[in-house]
């Protein structure tokens, strides 16, 4: 009967025990995208956008896309805002983020609910109806002519560590073992 177990291993055989550990690490960054001259962006057209500078988080490059007249004609009357992944790191990448609208002094105007999303390639994900476009002049509306879009982005990085060990039982020294048995 062939059986292999750690307790019945012979000298010179390998005793192995395997184990691993799952680790979830996070990196959080905040990026502020200041938009000035908002009234001049009105009428750019649906699907047209401006972007923030590129920022890095968790080994990936990101930016914010802001569509003053909405991402498409379906968002008429709204501006859209999206988080955009540039694929410097290897997707997929899981993130949790919020995009908020702040006045130029940094005081909150609108804070959207947090989104948890897995980016599987370089593309954008966010809020088609980010903010309703004001009908009044910039001096009279709740947004003003300058504002900040704040992105708080947490990149979730997972990995598994191999913690396995291998133990080798030493070869027996028959002569020494016999002498010990006879003398003992």
Features:
single chain, 184 residues, mainly beta, five-stranded antiparallel beta sheet, 8% helix, 49% strand, rod-shaped, disordered N terminus
What would you note in describing this structure?
With 184 residues, the chain is mainly beta. 8% of the residues lie in helices and 49% in strands. It has two helices and twelve strands. Strands 2, 7, 8, 9 and 11 form a five-stranded antiparallel sheet that branches. Strands 3, 4, 5, 6 and 10 form a five-stranded antiparallel sheet that branches. The longest helix has 10 residues, at 174-183. It starts with 13 loop residues before the first strand and ends with a helix.
List segments where confidence is low: pLDDT < 50 over at least 5 consecutive residues: 1-7
Work out the oligomeric state of the chains in this entry: single chain
Percent strand equals: over 45%
Count the DSSP helices.
Answer: 2
Number of strands: 12
Rg, Å, rounded:
30 Å
Shape assignment:
rod-shaped
Helix/strand class:
mainly beta
The run of helices and strands is EEHEEEEEEEEEEH
Please give the share of residues in helix: under 10%
Topology of this structure?
Blueprint: E1 14-17, E2 20-35, H1 38-41, E3 50-51, E4 55-57, E5 60-67, E6 78-86, E7 93-103, E8 108-111, E9 115-119, E10 124-132, E11 147-162, E12 165-168, H2 174-183
Antiparallel strand pairs: 1-12, 2-11, 3-5, 4-5, 5-6, 6-10, 7-8, 7-9, 7-11
What is this structure, in a nutshell?
With 184 residues, the protein is mainly β. The chain is 8% helix and 49% strand.
């Amino acid at each position: 009967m062939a059986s292999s177990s750690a307790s019945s291993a012979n000298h010179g055989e390998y005793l192995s025990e395997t184990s691993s550990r799952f680790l979830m690490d996070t990196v959080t960054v905040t990026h502020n995208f200041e938009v000035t001259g908002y009234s001049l962006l009105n009428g750019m057209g649906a699907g047209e956008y401006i972007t923030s500078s590129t920022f890095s988080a968790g080994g990936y490059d990101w930016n914010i896309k802001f569509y003053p007249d909405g991402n498409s004609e379906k968002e008429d009357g709204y501006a859209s805002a999206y988080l955009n992944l540039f694929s410097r790191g290897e997707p997929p990448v899981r993130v949790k983020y919020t995009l908020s609208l702040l006045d130029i002094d940094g005081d909150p105007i609108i804070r959207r609910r947090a989104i948890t999303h897995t980016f599987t390639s370089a593309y954008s994900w966010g809020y088609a109806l980010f903010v309703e476009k004001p009908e009044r002049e910039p001096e009279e509306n709740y947004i003003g002519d300058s504002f900040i879009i704040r992105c708080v982005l947490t990149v979730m990085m997972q990995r598994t560590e191999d913690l396995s060990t291998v133990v080798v039982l030493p070869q027996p020294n028959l002569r020494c073992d016999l002498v010990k048995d006879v003398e003992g």
